[in-house]
Amino acid sequence: MQKNYIKRSLMLLGVAALSASAFADTYVDITSQYIKDPTFVPGWQGVIGNAAEGVGEVWNGAFKTYQNLGEMPAGKYVLKANAFYRCGDNNYAKEHQAGNADLNTAYIFINDAKTPVKALFDGKDTAPNSMTEANEAFAAGEYLNEVEYNHEGGELIIGIANTGCYADEWCCFDNFVLTRDGEVVADKIVNGDFAEGLDSKRAWDNHNSENKEKTPDIQKDGSGGGDYRKCGGSPYNTGQQIELPAGTYRFSMLCFHRYGSTVDPDGNYYNHKWPMNISEPYGKMNRTPKDWYEANDYDEIGDEYAHAYIYMSKNEEKPRFLTWANGDYEGDLTDDIDVRTRVKDCWEICEGDLSIMPNNNPYATMVDGVVDYIPYDTKNKCTRGNDSGSEREAAAAFANEGEKWRQGVEFTLTEPAKVWVGLGKDANSGDGYWHAYADIKLEKVEKGDSGVDGIEADDENAPVEYYNLQGIRVANPENGIFIKKQGKKVSKTAIR
Predict the structure, then answer these.
(1) Organism's domain of life (predicted)?
(2) Whole-model pTM?
(3) Residues 255, 259, 265, CA angle at the centre, nearest 5°?
(4) How far apart are CA 120 and CA 140, in angstroms?
(5) Share of the chain above pLDDT 70, in %
(6) Which residues pair with 183 in a beta bridge?
(7) Nearest one of 461, 472, 467 to 482, comparing CA atoms
(8) First and final CA of the chain: distance in angstroms?
């Protein structure tokens, strides 16, 4: 099982506050046991852009696709798969990719052992140019890759990934087979031949607050990319009901929600549809992403703006409205029973630094009457416009920066229960918002030792300390929501 040891100075779990003393929790990946089709393809976690003609693919973006096989005995493991990778379009790849390690960015892996995937034009003058042709080549035994790993026992993760290259990059894969000491490990790689294809409705309920079915955008409108998204449109709500034993859990994904459309380094605001459309802020709040970031009142705005949320609900039916039933707005969530987390803005996560922030449209200019796009041979950049934007930069951020982008809800069940887990947004805010996500995951949380007996204070004279919501100590807090710690007592407080 996947275990992440995370040092934290502070954690809030449901409505209970734990000590701000540093402690380590263990996160055990149990996705495959309880979540069906986390990539909308059976068996696989991470991201898959398409699965058809008996093969899987991701086009025009970085990605990671994997299976966590759990605890496996020691031995020499070999993973084989038919797969190829193209670093840009056919013409560019044919001319530049062979023998250039910088352009061969896809690989198959077992834990930390990896082998680069064969180039599409690997000693070939012609090559597949569709999933149908890829399937034919793989059936003929072409593009066979393998990676070896001497395992000492414990968790084993296998898969294929791409750190990303140039626009139009393409990776196709099929026929994953794992052996241990020369013997095939039966029943471990689920759907390794992609016989069961992609279907975002098979295991997920996608009905929104209007009771309309709005499925996730997967390589939609030519955007490509190794992620999923909803962007500047209708309300959405993708959820799944699962049955869990008693315990503490985290349901999460790599994600962000950008409020408003694109802002360039000079402060120009762009209509999200095309990179040349400089405009004024629009939508319900009439704010740019920079406005939101500088105001830093995301949570204070509350339900006045339809935020994007990740949620857990004990409702018998899937919650349609992700607001509280006992508040001023119609809602299907119950405080102290259900849990929701507002998906953070990429501006929040990147602390306002545009140079490291994903974008879904290039900052294009006109030169002699011609659109001057970012050069084609720029890695992991959105180089041209698209009706709803490109996913290249978000996909690369998720594939290369990993847990920086992970957000989710933690919850405790005192007895076995059926719960709904998912993500959604109750209304279209009309401002060109962008919600990118990948790697849906469910983990069992094994609580570490905080070194205290509880959260009740027995020393009223202890010094007071303040922390922001990320667990960072603040010397002189003002104008915001903070965590107040006094002795063993921890509470959430607003300071104005």
Answers:
(1) Bacteria
(2) 0.85
(3) 100
(4) 15
(5) 88
(6) 180
(7) 467
(8) 45
